[in-house]
Amino acid sequence: MTKLVRCGAALLFVVLLAKCAVSAPVPDSLFKDKDIVVKNLGTNVNSSANDYGPTITANGKTLYLTSDRKGGIGGHDFWSTTQNEDSTWTQSVDAGNSINTQQDQGVSSLAADGQTIYFTGCNRPDGMGNCDIYEADLVGTEWQNVRNLGPIVNTEYWESQPSISADGKTLYFASNRPGGLGGTDIWYTTKDANDNWTEPKDLPAPINTADNEVSPFIAADGVTLYFASDRKGGIGGYDFYTSEKTETGWATPSNLGAPINSEYDDEFITVPASGDIIYFASNRPGGSGNLDVWEAFIKPKPKTVLLVEGRVYDIRSNENLSGHVVYIDSAGDTVANVHSNKSTGEYSFVLNIPGGHFKIYCDEPQHVSVVDSLDVPMKPGQYQRVRKDIPMERRPILHAVYDIPNYTKKSAALASYRGLIVEQILTRNLYPLLQFIFFDDGSAQFAARYKLFKSPRDTVGFDEIHLPGGTLEKYYQGLNIIGKRLRQFTDATITVYGATNQMTDGENQPGLGEKRATLVRDYFVNIWGIDPKRIDVQGIDLPRHPSNQKDTLGQEENRQVEIAVDDAHEWDILKPVLEESNTYVPDPATTKFSMFNGINDNNVDHRDIELTRGGKPWNTLTKIGVTDTLGALYDWKDKQNDTLPVDEDPFIARMNVYGKDGKLRVSNYDTVKVKQITSAVQQSLHIAGREIETYNLILFKFDSPEAGPKNDRILSEYIYDRVRPTSTVKITGYTDIIGQPGRNQKLSTARAQTAYDAIKAKKGSSYEGMDFTGVGSSAPLYPNNLPEGRYYNRTVQIIIDTRIEH
């Protein structure tokens, strides 16, 4: 058990027999008496118990000490006090149970940044001997992460009274381990390239002697060492000495002399970076009792010491931040690498270089990185204290906000999955082929929306099955589809009827209908190589089945060419296009983004969201406004091809906020996982797959619910066999916008029922479910501002969704 050993008036916190003071010649003072003022720190700091082992922060504003006063947690605890503006000290408070225990704590040493403390802990469960050296980190206002320095530094003997150098790379301490020169020696350990402490070494003579050397303190300059010793020639039991490290070793120690030393015990010294005040412990008369903390004001020897400190804070809220602060000198060397305290925002460090130009970098996860600089004009041999506060802007924040995929309900293996699921679904889509080509008023030239080849060479490899796009995109390739089929069925013949609406001067041009029909014929002949003898051209006034001439939309539809095929080959040439492929369906269908700008909204010029996958650009969302909000609805598709992901590279999203000041602020990177559900995955997870088939019945006659022979054939050849016991069938009827809404609603419902009745008559109840509805003109499938769109809207759409059991 650690003991307090008394020798006369001396009180020493060591496990040694203390020497009693003996009469000896009084040494000369290192300082002149007139230069020194010594005074007790007073009752706010000291008590009637033992108050000793002071350690001061580099800026001299916070003092830690050890005391066995009442009110602590253990026998000897750490206490702290801070300096007021008038240089008085606040009432000492216990440092708390994060660092104090019910055992004894001893002398401590604060690192230059104030965020790490090295201290003596005695009789702890993880100790190597009765007293070991520990370290802890200041997290906010509490010392946490307490850890023993381990068997390299500590032994079964007594290690105590640590002092850390300003650069954090050398630790001095006192120990009675074997290998020293006397009872208690000063030892030191340094950090290697991996930041590990190396095997400690005993400081050589003349620092250590055959007597006891204790309580070392290495000054901020890194070369001035203070310590206490009971060696011969002192004034009292223990006196303070100082020595400087030179290129050839340590200089002969000098006794600090009176009035710092006294005939009593003077121990445990600490000095701020300024070097002009010495704090120490002494049991001399004039204190509060036993050992007290005293201070001595001295004129320091000129040394190059630069103390840099500052505060890292949020520029909007003034909140203190725990920032990672790095200073780099003009040579490109890192001279400081510290973290600010999360509660106070304060950071500090000490350099032994004469100022200069420094580049400053500060990072904090939720804030925009800061790049700044600091110029410190300073001469060698000076002490200078510089303050550099670092304001930080809040980093923009981006988070994708989406629903839990419905697919996760299908398998326990997917229950916890969060992200995008892309389901691969086998699809069959039937696209009806419209046999009409529409023209602009008075024109006998193809409208620009039709896809036409320029030469016969372009027709090589044309494949109607894999044309991109939907119904209208395939319709605009209609002349090529018919051309290829005419080339395939060589005995098929067609009649091309060119018509006008006869309502305008342009439409009343003589021979306009025939010109339109001839244009179509020439395309088949010149591009597709169709024998002109197979094509009959007829110019007629109105179409054979005209739309309502009293309606401007009807007039537009009557500016047309109709391609009629001989009865024997009508189906071969004009049958729908059937496309079978894999369709990728996203689950959830969309995501939104929660966006926080970091700066005030009225300071934002514009912003966007960049999405990448596999390290490559995927899409950029630009129409997202400038306010902090939940928005930017997104359907997962890429910008180039408008397609969904076909692999499992995750989405990486970030928001760029462009300020009116010309600066770019970049948000965090948010990740959304992607999982592909293929038929193979469905089989491995025993999940039912899906096939979705969409059929549009070719056309219904204007204002009629009758299916007609073409639609009957579509039902027979394409649909009946695809309705299976696990199928759900949805039938929806549509109309164009011509006519009254009520009438259109009834007409569309009647058309849907026509298909419903036909399927039910053929299949009975051999399906999982089937219903029909009519939506009239309220939800058109195609744009009604185009004549082809209105024709295609006179339809019934049949969707068959079939569950495939694996």
Give a short synopsis of this structure.
With 806 residues, the chain is mostly beta strands. It is built from nine helices and 50 strands. The model is unreliable at 1-26 (pLDDT under 50).
Strand share of the residues?
Answer: 35-45%
Number of helices: 9
- Bulk shape: elongated
pLDDT < 50 runs, ≥5 residues: 1-26
Query: Which radius of gyration do the C-alpha atoms yield?
Result: 45 Å
- Look at the helices and sheets and give the structural class: mainly beta
What is the distance, rounded to the nearest whole angstrom, between the alpha carbons of the first and last residues? 75 Å
User: Helical content, roughly?
Assistant: 10-25%
Main sheet, how many strands, which sense, barrel?
Answer: 7 strands, mixed
The average pLDDT score comes to 91
Q: How many strands appear in the DSSP assignment?
A: 50
